[in-house]
Amino acid sequence: MALKITSECINCDVCEPECPNQAISMGDEHYVIDPDRCTECVGHFGEPQCVQVCPVECIPVNPERVETQDQLMAKYLRLQADAKTST
Question: Could you tell me the fold of the domain covering 16-85?
Fold first, then answer.
């Protein structure tokens, strides 16, 4: 389940540096999460770091991108492999 940032985002800039997958970036009006890069911090942390630091609690699970823990781990492993081949 990739996460998403809702329009309640206040652009406080605390979530972006916390993302170990560089899935968070500034969108047109507020920060957005790339669902192809979001693993909900599986492989890195026990809890999604962006959710932990968000002061307005505007980062729910994206119901359009429901994924199992196994799928999230597979995505994490793919992202790690991609990072190794691009360096």
Answer: Alpha-Beta Plaits (3.30.70)
pLDDT digits (tens, 9 = 90+) for 37-58: 999 999 999 999 999 999 999 9
Stated as kind and residue range, the H or E segment containing 70 is helix 69-85
Q: Which of 2, 70, 74, 9 is nearest to 19 (CA)?
A: 2
The rounded distance, in Å, linking the Cα atoms of 10 and 54 is 10
- Token pair of 74, please? 């597979």
What pTM value is reported for the model?
A: 0.91
- Alpha-carbon gap, residue 17 to 71, rounded angstroms: 24
33 in Cβ contact with 5 (< 8 Å): yes
Closest by CA to 1, choosing from 74, 76, 66, is: 66
